[in-house]
TrEMBL record:
Keyword Mitochondrion attributed: no
Domain ABC transporter: residue ranges: 19-253
Key word Endoplasmic reticulum present: no
The family this protein is said to belong to: Belongs to the ABC transporter superfamily.
Stored SMART domains: AAA
Keywords: Amino-acid transport, ATP-binding, Nucleotide-binding, Transport
Protein name: Lipopolysaccharide export system ATP-binding protein
GO molecular function: ATP binding
One Pfam family in the UniProt entry: ABC_tran
InterPro entries documented for this protein: AAA+_ATPase, ABC_transporter-like_ATP-bd, ABC_transporter-like_CS, BCAA_Transport_ATP-bd_LivF, P-loop_NTPase
Coiled-coil stretches: none
Amino acid sequence: MAIIKKFRIKSFKNEKPILSLKKVSLSFGKRKILDNINFDLNKGQVLGLLGPNGVGKSTIFNLIIGLIKPDYGSIIVGSTNVNEYPIYLRTKEFKLGYCPQNSGYFHDLTLLENLNSVGQILISDKKIRDEKIDSMISKFELEPVMNVKANHLSGGQKKKLVIALALLGSPKILLLDEPFAALDIMTIKMLQKIIVNLQSESNISIILCDHAARDLLKICDFSLVLSNCKIVASGTPTELINNSEARSAYFGDSFILR
């Protein structure tokens, strides 16, 4: 485990969280999705969300970015309640970056055209925009495929592109929805290292959810387990796998973190 992440931030300085969900509840019709959800994301922290299918992990991301609004409760970025802020303002003014589980890019454009298209929206100065795009291509080693249409990229290259697109706006908070889904072992390790480097080199605060629990726990400082609309357990990876409620709701008795 130390090969991927050599350190974990177990405590944070006495400063306000960069993001907070306060008493957030949401229903779709008569179906309760989230019930009184509370958690904080601290500056420079990697936070994991775990739980069965349909428990509301992606819904939490949709609430944070502004795609949907909570029935009750507050989404707070810094010291501002952003419940009424549209998606584009959360991206530009509050520096939120989002990498969806599926797609997140223009299929019929090349990798470079994708970066230019999004860059024109986020960065008005052409010189700065071109420098940032060149930096992303170099950072993620995408030079050999920069003129390949996104639809023809490999799974790992597509993930790199989506993360690069999210980073063009210099986000302070990055949301990764199932980044390891349908990827081979070596590509997962590559993405793990990218995520850890974003934390250690750029001090970006990251929330990610994934069903690859071992892969997620290897790079998270702190994680939450959701079940039946609520957070049933939280803690460091070791604390979670030894938590009886987390095992009952999600891990099972045979789960071992290696």
